[in-house]
Amino acid sequence: MAKCLCLEGENIKPSTAAEAKKLMGKLVRYLRSNDVDRRRGYFFPRCGEVVGVNGRNVMIDGDWVYLPDLYEMVEVKSAANTEEASNG
User: Fold this and answer.
1) d(Cα 56, Cα 54) in Å, to the nearest integer?
2) Which of 53, 66, 69, 77 could lock 20 by a disulfide, CB 3.0 to 4.6 Å apart?
């Protein structure tokens, strides 16, 4: 996998449903394409647990995200890092 441009860590963004199923139960920090403001250089990461996969959609904490809409995704190692990520 490649290094992320916005988030710190290795990009684990799945491109297929099989890859997404391997992330079930893991805490992730992710950016969707509409979370990145390239004009101003801002990005607004989200955090959550991968709880479901249906075709080319992945459910992260109750929200369905279309796989091609994912810009970057990294695994969060602990709950403390999840709080840091959600606070900015």
Assistant:
1) 6
2) 53
Give the separation between CA 70 and CA 31, rounded to whole angstroms. Answer: 6
Separation of alpha carbons 4 and 17, rounded Å: 21
Average pLDDT per run of 10 along the chain, which is 88 residues long?
A: 81 93 95 84 90 94 93 84 54
Q: Checking phi first, is residue 80 left (phi over 0); if not, alpha (psi -120 to 50) or beta?
A: alpha
Q: Which residues pair with 49 in a beta bridge?
A: 27
- What would the DSSP string read from start to end of 42-68? EE--EEEEEEEEETTEEEETTEEEEGG
Given a contact cutoff of 8 angstroms between Cβ atoms, the answer to whether 72 and 7 are in contact is: yes
